[in-house]
Amino acid sequence: MPWEWRELLEVAAALGLIAGLGLGGLALLRARRDQRRAEEKLRRASGAFMELLAERFDEWGLTAAERDVALFAIKGMSTAEIAGLRSTSEGTVKAQTAAIYRKAGVSGRSQLLSLFIEDLMRDDGAIRPMTGAGGLSAK
């Protein structure tokens, strides 16, 4: 192979490496931008969920203690864990959860959580209107 062809091949390979480096940098910048957007959406969704919780807790007339217990229950903590965190007895936590379920019009933790999931999954972005004690609307 003549040296001219070999030189041309090496120049082409070097240009290909430089182009690959540039494209890789662009891909990295786009990935970082997408990550920032996703983090912002997650932050907004988290804020929206907390606003939704506060709104529903207000509508149900929960006390400060019931709000704490409801939040812990929604996070998936057990009665014993909630009692330990709040420095109260399990019986107190059970009474508070019963009051929360009664005020929300649900029979248990899974139904309580499903009320919030329903609101967050609505296609139109609107919060489901409350009807009756439990807020379960006819669809």
From TrEMBL:
One of its GO terms (molecular function) is DNA binding. Keywords: Membrane, Transmembrane, Transmembrane helix. The chain crosses the membrane at residues 12-31. Pfam families: GerE. Residues 59-116 form the HTH luxR-type domain. SMART domains: HTH_LUXR. This is Helix-turn-helix transcriptional regulator.
